[in-house]
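Data availability (excerpt). All sequences and predicted token strings are deposited with the supplementary files. A representative entry, Alcohol dehydrogenase GroES-like protein, is shown inline so that the format can be inspected without opening the archive.
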Amino acid sequence: MPGLKPGQVLVRNHAIGLNPVDWKVLGGALVNWRLGHVPGVDGAGTVVAVADDAMRYLLGRRVAYHQALGEHGSFAEYTPVAAGVLLTVPDTLDFETAASVPCPALTAWQALEKVPCRVAREILVSGAGGAVGNYLVQIAADRGFVVSVSSHERHWERLRERGASHFLPGAVDETIGATPELARRFYAVFDSIDARYAARWAPAVAANGHIVCIQGRFDTPPLPPFTSSASLHEVALNALHTYGDDAAWLETTTAGSMLLAGIANGRMQPEARVTGDFEKLPAQLEGLRHRRFSGKPVVLVD
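Structure token line:
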């Protein structure tokens, strides 16, 4: 049973959500973990212990969380988590679904928060077929944006149901990007593939528009100076654990709890889940790395 630092609670995990970052960090190139560190960023379960009496009101609460990479993670029966990062899981929502939500949904929300809301302006979500795209399309449509997507055609019907209006081919290859007829069409482009692909969409951004890189960041501006004057944004959800203050976390956890409530009441649709027991976690992680299945992998701890 792990010990608790001040401000932490102990979560008994009932389900673990797997994300691409989980396999990316296991090689050791991105983080400096010591032997024995527990990986995993997303989980959902019940608060069973608190660091001090002032937090006893949290005991028994159903929660989900996105854990800091520097702390012991969700690939365990119990995880110590800072109380300030907990998301409230409604009683009507199962832990399996809740564990699938934090990383992709909060990333999508954070990406959209970079861009001022302009009702009826058209945006493009590149790489929309993945987990982040699932939530980004829904949140953007709910805010009044006209949503276009670039993804494989097999995702189009699902994305139409989520709120997308226009569809562009989007196989992840060297041909993806803006065509002349798309010049300066979009108020904002949200790319979830990488900065190279995001740069290819730059000519499609309208004057004073926005380009949001969800994976990676631009090393150099993708457009010449004194042209469309697009604002460039990066998204780094886990960095909030290091650089975010209490106000930033309150905004984030409030949004996350509202997204979970939206899923519980049917206003927001989660990804389809691919579940397995704890013994199958390595196989699911390897399958996620090599895209051997479609859907969100979730490990059931109970």
